[in-house]
Amino acid sequence: MPQQSKKNNAQRVQFWKRHLKEWSKTKLTQNAYCRKYNLRPNRFTYWKTKLKKKNLPVEFVQVAPVQLEVPPMACHSSNILRLNIKSGFQIEIPDGFSQITLERLLQVVT
Questions:
Q1: Separation between Cα atoms, residue 86 and residue 109, nearest integer Å
Q2: What DSSP assignment string belongs to 73-91?
């Protein structure tokens, strides 16, 4: 990213942080605050969400391994994807497994 773009982005972040901080001190609704300071409500909401996500604390939770019972027929199916993880675990993903759930699973194990 060019130096000027980084500077402009940093200025935008500071601009919206300042407005969000000032808004939180008022009893105005978002729309009323935006009207008062000539701000676009959709941009206000965008930056409120974006900056809130950046400030969320990160927590790691230790999960105890669980031995799952697998039906005998499931082990013989040729439509199973097996992921072997370095820790020694194996994840078996049957055909038709939800793509969204798989994406979430991969984010956790990688």
A1: 10
A2: HHHT-SSEEEEE-TTS-EE
Which residues, other chains included, contact 65 with Cβ-Cβ below 8 Å and sequence gap of 6+?
89
Would you state the pLDDT for residue 44? 94
- The one-letter code for the residue type at 95 is D
Q: Residue 64 domain-assigned?
A: no
Enclosing domain of residue 90: 72-109
Q: Are 92 and 79 in contact (CB under 8 A)?
A: no
Domain count, the chain: 2
Which H or E run contains 94? strand 90-94
pTM above 0.70, yes or no: no
Hey, CA dihedral for 7, 12, 15, 18, is it positive or negative? negative
Angle of CA points 42, 16, 27, to nearest 5°: 75
pLDDT in tens, 28-44: 999 999 999 999 999 99
Domain shared by 10 and 44, yes or no: yes
Answer whether residue 29 is part of any domain: yes
Backbone angles phi, psi at 92, to 5 degrees: -105, 125
